[in-house]
Amino acid sequence: MSRVAIVTGAASGIGLACAERLAADGMKVVIADVNEKSGAKHAKRLGGLFVAADLTSRDGCRNLVDQALKACGTVHVLVNNAGFQHVSPIEDFPEAQWERMLALMLTAPFLLTRYCWPAMKQQKWGRVVNIASIHALVASPFKVGYISAKHGLIGLTRTAALEGGEHGITVNAICPAYVRTPLVDSQIADQAKANRMSPDEVIEKIILAPAAVKRLIEPREVAGFVAYLCGDAAGTITGAALTMDLGWTAR
Q: Looking at the whole model, is its pTM more than 0.85?
């Protein structure tokens, strides 16, 4: 029987790359996203299942796992990837955005892990991979909601890993630097406008300034790391915040 993987935010970017790689590795992939047109198209292409899911709500999280269990019988892998950015100073940061960011990027991973946990325990095998960020380990100004949620995600990762070990469940976080995604493209455009720079200058002088390797990460590279952590060979790796940071934190 094929293993079953839920990937959130999988209609584009890192999530889509993860869904494609896990499907290529023989898994049945459940794509979850609010973008119904793109998500359904990719699920059909990959021979998987699409679930339209607003993961900022408890009901949305519960429904996603229930649909996956109903259609596939179990869940072996959970990739918590869905997220978004908002950039503004603390004094101007909208309270509603704070609440939405924590709901999507911290509460939803907790709920989805909780709802998948019984199936993983029963089969004595599970993999949870949380797509964090280098900003789960370091901070930058004007990103208080995103950084707070990602820092919290590391705590969730470590706690779940300690509880899951005896049941054959591993839980890890991947912390990439900037990945070439639509989300990062929009950040580059915003930075270019704010700093009166060209997009190439923003990449060189702002985004890649702390990095030793001077390039953006490709989504398929993150997906390859996810695929490894979701395999049997990674059974001894758990509770880790694993960097893909181009050397950012080596300083």
A: yes
